[in-house]
Amino acid sequence: MQCLRVLYVVLWAFGFTSTANEHKEHALRLMAEAPLIDGHNDLPWQLRLRFNNNLKSVDLYTLNSTHTNIHKIKEGRLAAQFWAAYAPCDSQYKDAVRQTLEQIDVIHRMCQKYPEDFMLAASSQDIMEAFAQNKTASLIGVEGGHSIDSSMGTLRIMYQLGVRYLTLTHSCNTPWADNWLVDTESEPVEHNGLTNFGKRLIREMNRMGMLVDLSHVSEQVMRQVLDTSKAPVIFSHSSTYAICPHKRNVPDDVLKKVEDNRGIVMVNFYNNFVTCRQSANLSDVADHFDHIKKIAGSSTVGFGGDYDGVNRVPTGLDDVSKYPDLVAELLRRGWTDDEIKDALGRNLIRVFKDVEMVRDTLTNTSPDDEPIPLEQVKNPCRTDYGYPPQPSSARVPSLGAPALVSTVALISLCVKFM
Ligand SMILES: *[C@@H]1O[C@H](CO)[C@@H](O)[C@H](O)[C@H]1NC(C)=O
Ligand SMILES: *[C@@H]1O[C@H](CO)[C@@H](O)[C@H](O)[C@H]1NC(C)=O
Ligand SMILES: *[C@@H]1O[C@H](CO)[C@@H](O)[C@H](O)[C@H]1NC(C)=O
Ligand SMILES: [Zn+2]
Q1: pTM of the model
Q2: Does CATH number 1.20.1270.90 belong to domain 23-361?
Q3: From ligand 4's centre to the CA of 170, what distance in Å?
């Protein structure tokens, strides 16, 4: 009797493991057919922090103190990655543009140093070409509107350098958009969303073919952009508010608007956004995928791990090698092959193609070359060449900006945490 019971348990355990193995093998098959495209990875920021961007002193095969290295990328079947070109908010009104350009440069150099493993990519077609060659398509996203110093020209030049999304804010307001912290009441609302210049920036991004990223922005900005943009938008690394009520996450009514917009929300794995606690596991992350599917359909979801931008990741998703385990979990939960492939990358490809199509319909629209009104960017580190001479009384610098910068500096010290 005892013996039979043991046998039963052993058989049950065997059955359980072999089903788990089947899901994993099934996941790997799907990932060989459709590219996994992740919306946000901060390895470039780790290269800045640990090596001051000195790639000669880094071996991306053996580097093992980060979530990301080349072996883990291969094991995780990471086919395409938007690498974040990030400069902390305390560089706003200082050297944010230089810092950002250096991050764009280090992404370019990373692709040059490992040409067998990475391919710089700037279009939906590039992603598919890299996938066919078993290389990780490397796209660039600038994380934070402060990186363009309120300048359309700077944004356009960044596009020329390969940047394909702009996250409208990081965790600080810009002169033209509010960030998510205004919804926590730890920062005052400054613009009620986007200013007129902010709205013009959206139109300019539509014209250029740059994706608009709504992670990190205030709820009002989310809604205004969804009403303004001619092209689908993304949340490159945000989870769902219904499951974890953190203001970095996306509320259900916005999820529905994203569905109408044909955009996507790429799920962030950061524990604090997944469970609103310090601990989380793979199954908790899968809950966010299920929730987006329930509210807005599987055409509205994607992966946005935020690896190397956070200090805590869920058990079972310890680094970029673990994506197949999450895919296996979705299979276990009854996701169909088509739904999985959409989530993996087909949704992002659809968004990207739509963005490229909108760009192509706007080729006869000229660039927006009207600078931001001077009074909106009065700060000690900006000169006013080109603007009409001001009466001297109007030249008093604004006091708002420095106070804001110092608040934000506190939040964005050294480690990123989102
Ligand atoms: C890398 O680190 C992980 C723990 O974070 C460890 O399990 C693994 O063995 C390490 N790999 C190498 C090649 O050192
Ligand atoms: C990519 O990898 C697959 C599976 O490992 C292999 O069959 C295929 O030939 C490779 N393609 C290229 C272009 O290396
Ligand atoms: C994951 O964590 C949740 C609590 O957030 C718990 O209920 C669940 O059992 C855990 N799952 C696994 C597989 O550990
Ligand atoms: Zn972020």
Answers
A1: 0.91
A2: no
A3: 7
